[in-house]
Automatic annotation (TrEMBL):
SUPFAM superfamilies: TPR-like
Protein name: Tetratricopeptide repeat protein
Domain of life: Bacteria
Signal peptide location: 1-19
Upper lineage: Bacteria, Pseudomonadati, Pseudomonadota, Alphaproteobacteria, Rhodobacterales
Stored InterPro entries: TPR-like_helical_dom_sf, TPR_rpt
Entries under SMART domains matching the protein: TPR (SM00028)
Organism, scientific name: Roseovarius pelagicus
Length: 285
């Protein structure tokens, strides 16, 4: 008489154990899914920042191909193509992102950036014109300034550069761009001021140092400004200043600066030596 009861209890025990086992497995599976999400996020960050650019492209091409509906993977592929300087492919990738149903205004700005990198200025301007004016970011205004520059719309460029500077905590790069814009217009004094400000904010920005020397040379000021430079940088800046002097017709001063550059450089300064030889050959002929 007891056997059916025992069997029933055993059966119920088995069901409970089975349910517990399924519950535990589900919990473990969810835990591993959480770990996988964290691991994937970390790996994506690594690929976008420190990995070899072309390796990152291959990684995101594979992952985006496996999950084509995920816009975050499509964005990462587009960013990695920009980082690898594969600009034509980057434009195509950002266009796919912009066409995605979850795309936003930031994606359009990134597409405009890729178009500029690919020298497609008119298309970039069209894309930015489609971004609402209420979307105000540093990158948007920096690109607007560059496009205004390319169209020689100087007042608009200055306005956009000024706005961009106010929207970032690291304005040295955009100040350098703004200074170069002034340099190309022939506004050398303003260019010099902007390059000086850029160097003050980022002393490692050699491009701004070189541009500053060009601005001073254009004003026939052939002395190096006081700023932190390595010996190699000093030689390169003297070389730039020498070429600027020669371009202005101050050949004797230019030759002296080229000699200083050759003497200052810690190694053989081939470019300066070639320029000096060319000058000497021209003088002989």
């Amino acid at each position: 008489m007891r056997h059916p009861l025992v069997l029933t209890l055993c059966a119920m025990g088995s069901l409970v154990l089975s349910a517990c086992e399924k519950s535990d497995n589900a919990t473990v599976e969810r835990s591993f899914q959480g770990v996988n999400v964290v691991d994937e996020s970390n790996l994506n960050d690594v690929m976008l920042t420190v990995a070899d650019p072309n390796e990152a492209v291959a990684y995101f091409q594979r992952t985006a191909g496996e999950q084509p509906d995920r816009i975050d993977l499509q964005r990462n592929l587009a960013k990695s193509l920009v980082r690898a300087k594969r600009n034509t492919e980057a434009v195509a990738a950002w266009k796919r992102v912009v066409d995605h149903k979850e795309a936003n205004d930031e994606d359009k700005v990134d597409l405009a950036d890729a178009l500029i990198r690919n020298n497609e200025w008119e298309q970039a301007e069209t894309v930015l014109n489609g971004v609402p004016p209420t979307y105000e970011t540093f990158k948007r205004y920096r690109l607007e300034a560059m496009i205004a520059d390319s169209n020689k719309e100087w007042k608009r460029a200055d306005s956009f550069y000024e706005t961009a500077v106010g929207l970032t905590t690291r304005p040295a790069g955009v100040m350098n761009n703004w200074g170069y814009s002034k340099l190309t217009r022939g506004d050398f004094a303003d260019a010099e001021r902007l390059f000086t400000d850029a160097i003050r904010l980022d002393q490692s920005l050699f491009t701004a140092k070189n541009n500053l020397v060009l601005a001073r040379g254009a004003q026939r000021n052939y002395t190096l400004p006081v700023m932190p430079v390595s010996q190699t940088e000093r030689a390169q800046l003297l070389y730039t200043l020498g070429l600027a002097a020669i371009k202005q017709g101050d050949v004797t001063t230019g030759k002296g600066l080229l000699r200083d550059a050759i003497d200052t450089h810690p190694q053989h300064f081939e470019a300066a030596v070639r320029s000096m030889r060319a000058l000497e050959n021209t003088a002989v002929n």
